[in-house]
Amino acid sequence: MAFRHYTQCYAHTAGDKPFNKKDLVSYSLGVSAPGLIVMIASFLTGGYAVGFAAFIIQYAVTLQAIAKEWLEHRLICLSGNQCAVGVIDLVPTDSEFGDFDNDKYFDIRLMPHRYEDAYRGPNCAYATLGSTPWQLQTPPKAGPSLDGLTESMHHENDTFLDNFQGTLLMQPSLALQDLAYDPVALEDTTLKNPPQPNELTRFTQPCGAGQPDPKPVAGQIPAFTRATLHCEAEGNFWAAIHKTAGLQALAAGAGGVAGAAAGAAAGCEIGGIFGPIGCAIGAFLGFIGGLAAGAAGGAYVAAQAAFSSDPGDVNDANVGDTPLGTLNDGDQVIVYGTHVYDGFHEGWHEIHPLMAIMRAPPSQTWKNIPGLNTEVPTFIPPYIEWAPDWAVGKNGDLTSGLTATDMQQGLASPAFRAVAEKVKGQWCGLVTSAFSPGTRDNQIKPANRWTIHPLVDGCEGSDTAPPLR
Question: What CA–CA distance (Å, rounded) separates 89 from 289?
Answer without folding.
Answer: 46
